[in-house]
Design a protein that fits this description.
With 284 residues, the protein is mostly helical. It has 11 helices and no strands. The relative contact order is 0.08.
């Protein structure tokens, strides 16, 4: 009788988790759509704002071009959807946190909010750095190195794909401090040992920048330098974080100490009771 009831409870729990996951995904999709609708209405103005760094670098009289009939319509709509997802990221991350929070310890739940806020802020900071610092430098450089006899007129879809790549690369790269904190918390990385291997970190930083950015040395360098700064910031924060294994061992030690104290108190009480019984027997 017990086993079928247990199986039914497990099945009911699984179904309830799946229903909750469905609801959380639905909330996230609705949030993206709510942000997407107004952005889609003003998608043309949004694309003009995105193209401003490139247009400012083009030679006088040059413009961007369209090589497919539907690109003039689909490219701004795609841009609006991309920014809708980016703007809704904090709410989407909150839905993920709300789904997994019941399975976390209390001290882990306290860490989630700072991580959610810091990861969102760092991602936006990476995108802002790319737009305001990297784009003008990269497009100005590309416009100047264009060979003579070649007109620099980028295609709007190719430009958007290039921009999306840089946005994603810088947004993810700026998450480095959060990654270091999580790896330190999980006990995978020792920040003190990692700090002693800075030459290797510098080398791998430029390798990662080369993989994340388009194949030009300027954008790679502009990504590698902030990565190194963020690495140092993340290292300082990570050195103040205790690995989870240490917390678990401390909890086990405190539990063992409490058990030993309870056992000692019980033995003392038993010994005192036996002693009183012996004294009573002698008096009789």
């Amino acid at each position: 009788m017990g086993e079928p009831e247990q199986a039914g409870n497990d099945e009911g729990t699984l179904i309830s988790h799946l229903l909750e996951l469905r609801d959380r995904l639905l909330y996230a999709i609705i949030a993206v759509l709510v942000v997407f609708v107004p952005l889609a209405i003003f998608s043309e103005q949004l694309y003009q704002q995105l193209a401003a760094p490139l247009l400012a670098s083009l030679p006088e009289g040059n413009q961007m071009i369209v090589t497919h009939p539907l690109q003039a319509f689909l490219t701004p709509i795609k841009l609006a959807f991309f920014f809708a997802v980016v703007i809704a990221i904090p709410f989407v991350l909150y839905q993920i946190w709300a789904f997994v929070a019941p399975g976390l310890y209390q001290h882990e739940q306290r860490m989630v909010w700072p991580l959610l806020v810091s990861s969102s802020v760092l991602f936006y900071a990476g995108m802002a750095f790319a737009y305001f610092v990297v784009f003008p430098l990269v497009f100005g450089f590309l416009a100047q190195v264009t060979p003579k006899g070649v007109q620099f007129t980028p295609d709007i879809k190719a430009y958007q794909d290039f921009v999306f790549t840089l946005f994603f690369a810088f947004g993810v790269a700026f998450e480095l401090p959060v990654a270091l904190v999580l790896l330190t918390r999980a006990g995978i990385v020792d920040p003190h040992k990692l700090g002693k291997k800075r030459p290797y970190v510098v080398l791998w930083t430029f390798v990662v920048a080369m993989l994340l950015t388009p194949p030009d040395a300027l954008s790679q360098t502009l990504l590698a330098i902030p990565l190194l700064v963020l690495f140092e910031i993340g290292l300082l924060v990570a050195k103040r974080i205790k690995p989870r294994a240490n917390d678990d061992s401390e909890e086990h030690e405190s539990v063992d100490l409490d058990a030993e104290l309870e056992s000692a108190m019980e033995e003392s009480a038993t010994f005192s009771g036996d002693k009183r019984d012996r004294k009573g027997n002698k008096r009789r």
